Amino acid sequence: MSVAPAIRSLRTAAIVRLKEAVTLVAGRVLTAPIDQNTPYPYLVIGSYSERAAGHYGHGGSENGFDIRGVVRIAPPETGDAELLALYEEVYLALHEHPLTPAGHQETLGTIRLVAAYRDPDDAAVLHFVARFEALTAVAQ
Amino acid sequence: MKVAYRVEGLEKVAAELERRFELTRTEKAALMDRYGMWMMETAAELSPFDTGFMASHVTYVPLQKGWFDFEVGWYRKDFDLAGHPPYYFFQEFGTIHHAAQPSLGPAWRELSPHLQRDAAALIRRTMVEGR
């Protein structure tokens, strides 16, 4: 049973999907380091993990990464509606949406909301962190 | 026509179930202790190291309320007493100026498959096999 790393190709497929489906960020789906002049809102992909796992007899792995959504509230807005709207777009883009990482079979990943918080350095900036997890299997 | 059933010997079954239940309760507490300490040590190893305050203050709390539970993390009061803001949360998830440097999440993802396997084996041995 061969096991091919999937996290890089899975991340690429997810980023392509986020860029086309999450209209609020206008293509700003980033990885660290983030340019401090990046306009809000944007998404940051990070905290990757991958672990080899059996998948119906084929080589595969359990993969995951965090998606951090960042918005800046412009006065007179004060609430978190914009943050939650961004989270909804991310959820609808990736949760159980078919992705096909290069060299792997189509997979359906899941999204769960992990945290939402105000930035410690700028009270007008809000973050959410969502975890995307998917089981991948090597293409036959 | 009237049919009556009489079942005898249930006391022995109940006693055996109680014995297995207590065996499971005792052993799962030891299992949670082992994994709680392991998770604490792993999170400390993965903590961002500047002053070492985060690594030295990650804490394990044996809850023992439910069946398989424990807490590992940082206490706000420890940071307050040392005059630090609660930056452990922002280290885990990131801010606009600092990328996330998570330690709890990776520690849990490392240990949880082992915990699931060991917990399943414990229940099978104590509750199902009774030894």
Structural class of chain A: alpha+beta
Largest interface (CB within 8 Å) is between: A-B, 23 and 16 residues
Strand content of chain B: under 5%
Strand tally of chain A, please?
Answer: 7
Point out poorly predicted stretches of chain A. Answer: none
Approximate shape of chain B? elongated
In percent, how much strand structure appears in the residues of chain A? Answer: 35-45%
Q: What is the straight-line distance between the termini of chain B?
A: 45 Å
SSE layout:
The complex is a heterodimer of chains A (140) and B (131).
Chain A: H1 7-21, E1 29-31, E2 42-55, E3 58-72, H2 81-94, E4 98-99, E5 107-108, E6 110-118, E7 125-137
Parallel strand pairs in A: 1-2
Antiparallel strand pairs in A: 2-3, 3-7, 4-5, 6-7
Chain B: H1 10-46, H2 53-57, E1 59-61, E2 71-73, H3 76-81, H4 87-93, H5 104-128
Antiparallel strand pairs in B: 1-2
Helix pairs in contact in B: 1-5
Q: What do these coordinates show?
A:
- The complex is a heterodimer of chains A (140) and B (131).
- By secondary structure, chain A is an alpha+beta fold.
- Helices cover 21% and strands 41% of the residues of chain A.
- Chain A has two helices and seven strands, in the order αβββαββββ.
- Chain A has helices at 7-21, 81-94, and strands at 29-31, 42-55, 58-72, 98-99, 107-108, 110-118, 125-137.
- Chain A has a five-stranded mixed β-sheet. In chain A, strands 4-5 form a two-stranded antiparallel ribbon.
- In chain A, a hairpin with a 7-residue loop joins strand 4 (98-99) and strand 5.
- Chain B is mainly alpha-helical.
- Chain B contains five helices and two strands; from the N terminus they run H-H-E-E-H-H-H.
- In chain B, strands 1-2 form a two-stranded antiparallel sheet.
- The radius of gyration of chain B is 22 Å and the shape is elongated.
- The N and C termini of chain B lie far apart (45 Å).
- The mean pLDDT of chain B is 91.
